[in-house]
Amino acid sequence: MFACAHNGYPLAMTTESTTPGTYDFTDRDIERDLAFAIEIARFAGQRVLGLRDTGRWEGGMLADIGDQAADGYLQGVIQGRYPDDGILSEETVDTPERLAKRRTWIIDPLDGTKEFSQLRDDWGVHVALSFDNKCALGVVYLPTQDMLIWGVALEGRERAGIEGTGTLVDAQTDMMEKPRVAVSRSHTPPWVETFAKEVGAGELIPYGGAGNKTCRLLTGQGDIYVHNIGLKEWDTCAPETIARAAGWTVCRLDGSDHPYNQADPYNHQLVVCRPSWKDRVVEALSRSDVEVK
């Protein structure tokens, strides 16, 4: 599927046409696009990890180098393979042209930039494809944890898998009596503690990165993840896609679904939990004095 250029970048051998208004997903398309997303997420993650491992940069400079290296690669390889598709990335100036596209790649080249620059392991690369404003397929790759979770969230064709360490848990099984809530590593606002009491949570577990938190839930290291302000589509699209594909519930704080490829990329609210707990989580959030946008 991929050729390798002289600079070591894997490049698509052929350009794929996805002309707006005439395109629809086939099983072959899903396999092709998923393999592509897995390959480029893995390569981008290994590239920035290699840059970090050189020890040449630290702090903010390391973060900038990593962001730029991953984004430049991902932008180039996506545009080369799928020139008709839209792209929304954290690190590139947005344009309105993507809004007319049925297919838009939504990428976060380096989710958890602070954690990456602090030489931690809770950071990753997000690559997702939205179709008609919904999650289609996505990948979250956590290089230093040797974990890559992929998912197809197209209705009726949902499936997910994991490569490297870890095992996906069954989202349909009930969780422990006192669920574990994934929270921010750096700041837990008062409403989160109120929510934890309302939902009957046991442990609050601090993790960095939206993708990392979601992967922790999917591999049995947490049960609920809630967030209210500051997230954007590139933070949530790949994590939401893999979670939905694996059978988990993902929604806004009021229980409604997220649309994607919107003019305003802010996607402030996020809930990830098992389906059997959705009503309890949403009800507890309504009693938790959450500031919403």
What does this structure look like?
With 293 residues, the protein is an alpha+beta fold. It folds into two domains: 2-162, Fructose-1,6-Bisphosphatase, subunit A, domain 1 (Fructose-1,6-Bisphosphatase, Chain A, domain 1, 2-Layer Sandwich), CATH 3.30.540; 181-286, 3-Layer(aba) Sandwich (D-Maltodextrin-Binding Protein, domain 2), CATH 3.40.190.80. Helices cover 33% and strands 23% of the residues. It has seven helices and 13 strands. It has helices at 27-53, 59-81, 113-117, 190-199, 210-218, 233-245, 278-286, and strands spanning 2-4, 10-12, 86-89, 103-111, 124-131, 134-142, 147-152, 159-164, 181-184, 204-207, 224-227, 249-251, 270-273. The strands form three sheets. It has a six-stranded mixed β-sheet with strand order 3-4-5-6-7-8, sandwiched between helices. The chain has a five-stranded mixed β-sheet with strand order 10-9-11-13-12, covered by helices on one side. A hairpin with a 4-residue loop joins β6 (134-142) and β7. The longest helix has 27 residues, at 27-53. The radius of gyration is 18 Å and the shape is globular. Mean pLDDT is 91; it is low at 1-13.
Lay out the secondary structure.
Blueprint lengths: L1 E3 L5 E3 L14 H27 L5 H23 L4 E4 L13 E9 L1 H5 L6 E8 L2 E9 L4 E6 L6 E6 L16 E4 L5 H10 L4 E4 L2 H9 L5 E4 L5 H13 L3 E3 L18 E4 L4 H9 L7
Parallel strand pairs: 3-4, 9-10, 9-11
Antiparallel strand pairs: 1-2, 4-5, 5-6, 6-7, 7-8, 11-13, 12-13
Q: Key terms for this structure?
A:
single chain; 293 residues; alpha+beta; Fructose-1,6-Bisphosphatase, Chain A, domain 1; D-Maltodextrin-Binding Protein, domain 2; 2 domains; six-stranded mixed β-sheet; five-stranded mixed β-sheet; 33% helix; 23% strand; disordered N terminus
